[in-house]
Specification:
Shape: globular
Bound molecules: pyridoxal-5'-phosphate
Strand order of the largest sheet: 4-10-9-8-7-5-6
Largest sheet: 7 strands, mixed
CATH superfamily of the largest domain: Type I PLP-dependent aspartate aminotransferase-like (Major domain)
Number of helices: 17
Structural class: alpha/beta
Distance between the termini: 6 Å
Strand content: 5-15%
Helix content: 40-55%
Radius of gyration: 22 Å
CATH architecture of the largest domain: 3-Layer(aba) Sandwich
Number of strands: 15
Length: 414
């Protein structure tokens, strides 16, 4: 970064600080990951200068011989990874991808069955504070006492509500969804099926969890979580919806795509096609399972009865009498980053809920395995139990930094 260093020391210093923070911190936020240096390089290319409204071979501006190359690569790699009939790689992120997908196939006022936020759904799946909830009529389904989606109840709800769309997918739910059941229920009531795989896209690409693409009309995702790409979104769909999706993305919702970002998506998708990505995805699942088992041994209550993916949702207040906010703060002090999170039907407020969400995609990218996860679970327990003892927290912090240094990232960045 020699030019940045010379020209803008303030920004340069902040970048250096962030590199150090990422190197020395234990990143356990379930939606974060470390991209490769090749992805970082693609993000920093001259593609950022280019306007390329439209799609490969049919653009509104000239000079598209190279943008067409990277966008086509990203599309074809996604098709190959997920077996998708049609792919749009232009959504700027996950939230716009969802808005584009809704607007492609719904009219304002249409009804959508989506998963409740406190039961693991996402804000953009119909939370009242969002634009989507102002435009469409969301009705929310929940998990039952065992932590599973009650498909019988979902079917009864679908028959009663007659939604135009049934939406699956989540941000904090940890169990495997029954894709076929969603498909069958939607068919019964004539609804379109959509799934948001933002959290598990990398696990699907790495064949560590089942692929929903054959079962759903529309699939939205982010590219920056388990898929380990740049920040961004994508929409995969059946051929039948291809034209509607493309038109809804541009000109319907967005202007020019961010081509540096599309180039970086292509690079990340290329990485996901390699055999080593399968090993990564399988290790993510193994690490999450060890985290679940270890935290349970320490007396933590794991929501939804356990995990089948890359994260666990822990009821820290119910288990240890420490709120999600206090737990997040204590873990911050030992250099472990997590996020406070609502648990199903949380009796506490969203800004200080009962739970924390803990995910392992980023530490798995660093090469950490079962042995390290056991150490991390031990530190998490110790920090939460000693959340008001700064001396103990400081000691654990030193140990956390020590382990991070054994699994270095971004050694060549400066
Ligand atoms: C399931 C799901 N969908 C959509 C989004 C929104 O993605 P973005 O933050 O890229 O807009 C998220 C982000 O956390 C998510 O978890």
């Amino acid at each position: 970064m020699k030019n940045l260093k010379k020209q803008d020391p303030q920004v340069y210093k902040a970048v250096l600080g962030e590199i150090k923070r990422q190197q020395e911190g234990m990143e356990l936020i379930a939606s974060e990951n470390y991209v490769s240096e090749a992805v970082l390089e693609a993000l920093g290319t001259v593609f950022t200068n280019k306007y390329s409204e439209g799609y490969p071979g049919r653009r509104y501006y000239g000079g598209q011989e190279y943008t067409d190359v990277v966008e086509t690569l990203a599309i074809e790699r996604t098709k190959k990874l997920f077996g998708a009939e049609h792919v749009n790689v232009q959504p700027l992120s996950g939230a716009p991808a969802n808005m584009i997908a809704y607007s492609a196939v719904l009219k304002p006022g249409d009804k959508v069955l989506g998963m409740d936020l406190s039961h693991g759904g996402h804000l953009t799946h119909g939370h009242p504070v969002t634009l989507s909830a102002k435009v469409y009529n969301f009705v929310r389904y929940k998990t039952d006492a065992s932590g599973k989606i009650d498909y019988k109840q979902l079917e009864e709800m679908a028959i009663k509500e007659k939604p135009q769309m049934i939406l699956a997918g989540f941000s904090a739910y940890t169990r495997q969804l029954d894709y076929k059941k969603f498909q069958q229920i939607a068919k019964k009531v004539g609804a379109i099926t959509m799934i948001d795989i933002a959290h598990i896209a990398g696990l699907i690409a790495g064949q560590a969890v089942p692929n929903p693409v054959p079962y759903f009309d529309i699939v939205t995702t982010t590219t920056h979580k388990t898929l380990r790409g740049p920040r961004g979104g994508m929409i995969l769909c059946k051929k039948k919806y291809a034209e509607a999706i493309d038109k809804a993305a541009f000109p319907g919702f967005q202007g020019g795509p961010h081509m540096n970002n599309v180039a970086a998506k292509a690079v990340a998708l290329g990485e996901a096609l390699k055999p080593s990505f399968k090993t990564y995805a399988k290790q993510v699942i193994k690490n999450a399972k060890v985290l679940e088992v270890e935290l349970m041994k320490y007396g933590f209550k794991i929501m939804f009865g356990g995990t089948d993916n890359h994260m666990v949702l822990v009821d820290v207040f119910g288990s240890k009498g420490v709120s999600g906010k206090e737990a997040e703060k204590a873990l911050d002090k030992i250099g472990i980053t997590v996020n406070k999170n609502m648990i199903p039907d949380d009796p506490r407020k969203p800004m200080d809920p009962s739970g924390v969400r803990i995910g392992v995609p980023a530490i798995t990218t660093r090469g950490m395995k079962e042995k390290e996860v056991k150490m991390i679970a031990n530190w998490i327990n110790a920090a939460i139990e000693s959340h008001d003892n700064d001396k103990v927290l400081k000691e654990i912090h030193r140990a956390v930094i020590g382990l991070c240094k054994k699994f270095p990232i971004y050694k060549n960045l400066r």
